[in-house]
Amino acid sequence: MINRELIRIKVVQLTYAYYQNGNKNMDNAEKELLFSLSKAYDLYNYLLLLIVEISREERHRIDILSARAEREGTEKPSSKFAFNKFAVQLEENKMLNEFIEDKKLNWDNDKEFIRSKCNQIEQSEVYQEYMASDDDSYEADREIWRKLYKMLIQDNDELDGILEEKSLYWNDDKEIVDTFVLKTIKRFDPANKSNQELLPEYKDEEDREFARKLFRATILNADTYQRYMSEASRNWDFSRLAYMDVVIMQIAIAEMMTFPNIPISVTINEYVDLAKLYSTYKSGGYINGMLDTIARHLVQTGKLLKPIAPSRQRGGESN
Predict the structure, then answer these.
(1) Distance (Å, whole) CA 106 – CA 173
(2) What is each CA distance from 58 to 61, 133, 224, 265, in whole angstroms?
């Protein structure tokens, strides 16, 4: 689940923090990097648990309404959504339950938020159409949750506030983690029952090593990489650079030099996007030109043994 996009974001954040921190301890900084990445996986499981908790609240409501209907001799309410097949399978998932138990994660202190989500769901057109439909397939049950997640959970300021109180890491992670939750919903197969595999924390050990090696190379070779910037950029005005720009370019050079299988153009484009996210409005276009110039200088001087193709010109556009 922790992909290279998220790793690059964390390396940018932790490298910047490393230089802002007076007590520069490489081992502690590396532990902090790996810890911050692990918190993203906590969030992934926590958001899956939110689906389960909403479903449990819906069942509680159905129990109350059913008891009232029985007393009054009226028709009992439909339990179609309360016992949504996808949500039941997720609730029974072994990987999720083991992780939640191990990390002691729960939504017990946020019952009002759970109730408000249920109210919003029940009032939504998507829910009304689902309840009125005769389609009782697993696919329909999975699809309603995909739609509801995108509509009510993916962009939710109240939820962002709750998550920020629980972990300082989670607000920065949520946008990416949301995409993995949606991917997980789509991948669920009823044939797998409780053994359905969730996304692993890392795709493989290589991605975990990517995080560690990129961070170490960035810090340990800082003087060398900054010299490369100066050598290649005599016509550039460094006074125009925000401090974050320097950090981002330093990490980009570390990636170019350390990972022979990552094309130069991929590295440049990834860090141009990060500059737009974390630095100034004009940083994207400036860093695009700078990194292209630096990469060409390193290739021409034999310091970087990679082919270089024309990089995609992205200018100062905003996302």
Answers:
(1) 19
(2) 5, 18, 59, 49
Give the pLDDT confidence of 190-220 residue by residue, as tens digits.
999 999 999 999 988 999 999 999 999 999 9
Q: What are phi and psi of 270, to 5 degrees?
A: -60, -45
The Cα 248–Cα 283 span in angstroms is 10
Report the candidate in 67, 84, 88, 86 with the shortest Cα–Cα distance to residue 133.
84
- Asked whether residue 313 carries a pLDDT value surpassing 80, the answer given is no
Instruction: State both tokens at 319.
Output: 């996302």
Return the percentage of the chain with pLDDT > 90, whole number: 82
**Residue 306 token pair:** 């990679």
Cα–Cα distance measured from residue 179 to residue 183, given in angstroms and rounded to the nearest whole number: 6
Distance (Å, whole) CA 200 – CA 177? 13
From residue 215, give the alpha-carbon distance in Å to each of 130, 170, 172, 203, 249: 48, 20, 19, 19, 13
- pLDDT over 60 at 314, yes or no: no
Highest mean pLDDT among 20-24, 116-120, 291-295: 116-120
Residue 314: exposure state from Cβ atoms within 10 A (0-12, 13-18, ≥19): middle
79 within 8 A of 59, measured Cβ to Cβ: yes
pTM (two decimals)? 0.90
Contact at 8 Å (CB) between 180 and 199? yes
